[in-house]
Amino acid sequence: MTIDLTRRTLLQLAGATSLAAAAAGAARAEGNTQGGGQGSGPTYASRTPMRVGMVTLRVKQIDVVADYYRDMLGLTVMERSTASAQLGAGGVKLLVLEARPEAVIEPRSAAGLYHTAFLMPTRKDLARWLVHAASHRVPLSGFADHLVSESVYLDDPEGNGIEVYADRDPSQWQWSEGSVKMATDELNIPDLLSLTNTRVSDYAKAPDSLRVGHMHLRVGDLAQAENFYHGTVGLDPTRRRNGAAFLSSGRYHHHLGMNVWQSQGAGRRDDSMTGLAWFSLVTEKQELLAAQEARLRKAGAKVEALANGVEAVDPWGTRVRLIKV
Predict the structure, then answer these.
(1) Residue 140's domain is classified under what CATH number?
(2) What is the helix, strand, coil percentage profile of the chain, to 5?
(3) Average pLDDT of every residue of the chain
(4) Is the whole model's pTM more than 0.70, yes or no?
């Protein structure tokens, strides 16, 4: 397919008039009003003691949403029925959709999913995907350079937030007293697109090593969220600012973001609504999983045993599965 991919085209898809306006859109997506690992193997985010595994969403229109992730991101539909759809990359399941045709769309003021962040294995893959998105006229929300990564934001047909990003090499990340430096700056789109042919899309499907790099949640209280995901689940703080906290395993910039920008004071989620059903954090270390389970039970968290781990429920009813792989 021949594409007239210009900066103007991308800005139109983002509903913006300038790169600064597109960065402002990304800032809104990240709630910030102030101004990678390369190669085809596992990215830094997937080589840490814990990492994000997969995500399950409740959706009203399962065919519409499944087709969207297949066509927009190039995920492979691994299983599909009227009740559910499983999508992934490289034979790895990343996204499960559960059909809830009678559900009400979860409001953005509720606790729940802020966005699912799909991590491209290389910067060139991000460039190739951006050409693909432009060729299919996929509406975008904004672009941003976060210093540690470069990101594009969008929403699926039911309003579930999505980030598609590529990490800069970890050697370029700047740490100070346990906090990683991040920003929401303008993305240098011409430099990114210089890595690929902008006139012909060669992005037929998601790269085999595409993974969910991080999850970003809406929560009702930041201190309470940190107590659960840091104090109990065991992720380490990497940054806190303006109503948001970022946590990770193994000095990744973040496997989990949490914010109260729209959801301060939110109560327990309604399971009859759409949105995030559960996500998983996976580990290869049995002792790490055992320590997590012990802390959860000691804290009085709701814990359910699974065949290969446990499922816990955060203070707002979002379920997180801690899995041994």
Answers:
(1) 3.10.180.10
(2) 25, 35, 40
(3) 92
(4) yes
